[in-house]
Write a structure and sequence with these properties.
Nucleotidyltransferase, domain 5; 2 domains; five-stranded mixed β-sheet; globular; binds 5'-O-[(R)-(carboxyoxy)(hydroxy)phosphoryl]adenosine; binds zinc ion
Length: about 350
Amino acid sequence: MTQPSLTILGIESSCDETAAAVVRGAAPGPGSILSNIVASQDDAHAIYGGVVPEIAARAHVERADGLVAKALAEAELTLSEIDAVAVTAGPGLIGGVLVGLMTAKALALAAGKPLIAVNHLEGHALTARLTHGVAYPFLLLLVSGGHCQLLVVDGPGQYVRLGGTIDDAAGEAFDKTAKLLGLGFPGGPAVERTARGGNPRRFAFPRPLLDRPGFDVSFAGLKTAVRYTVQRETAPDASFAADIAASFQQAVADILTARSKAAMRWFAANRPDAHAPVFVVAGGVAANAMLRGALTATADGEGFAMVAPPLPLCTDNAAMIAWAGLEAFGLGRQAGLEVSAKARWPLA
Ligand code: KG4
Ligand code: ZN
């Protein structure tokens, strides 16, 4: 069923990016991104080697109003021309989530607009609808800084969790590896750059759990193996860091492709309602070119179309929040002003 077109203002502040965007469209998508502004706080956190929640929350306070004004101006719209305000209500760093949520509540109240509370993970999950209009149900690998899950997506708020990490998220492993190699913050892109030209077979890092059935993954042992290897090496040669980064990245890709392949086989056997099966990769780690390539090859081999959002829509942004809000609002879902921020909010 096609829905009427909606214009939604989205606000995101759950981690270290303050973001505002305006998106227009209707389910199933694709939609139009009228503006999409992301203010990264990387510089504020870099000297600490990771996100400091208090610094993040304060930076969100300083930027939120200005970013919303800029997103509306770029979309050439006023608040009165927006159908609803969508905002990340969790999961994430609670101080940051609160800043975005209070900003959105104030805007919604002042302009008399509906408020939509969006799950940040749902923002990542439904980005492939915004960009490609992917039909439900689809298979999703969600790999971000805080999460790593394989899910069947049946609709907004409708998820079946097949498996996921039993310890660290994939992005966390990238960030820790970057820190060990002294590559700075944020870690994922730095590891990817360093791995270029490195030998992915020099270090045999573990691929835990793959000898067991199911869809779970584990990255804690991999992270520890990288730490021991780096700490043991007293006289690293010129290619040491590149080879560590490449061997680490290869291990992550092997783990994720093996589990994704198993999930594709499960999906093909159990979800015949998906006539042309689609495998979606989303979240910050989906920005990794080597991983995208490996997953694309796996999807090709299993007869799945692979969809990964363009890089700026993989990492945190507000267009994805606006879109997830658009789909929820289209189904008549909206929040009251009493809605609270959630540090934890699993999809399934
Ligand atoms: O989705 P996201 O922006 O924020 C969360 O919701 O967590 O994901 C951030 C994570 C970080 O761990 C970052 O290091 C990782 O995504 N990341 C990457 C790349 N770009 C970002 N990991 C590997 N390769 C990349 N190119
Ligand atoms: Zn995210």
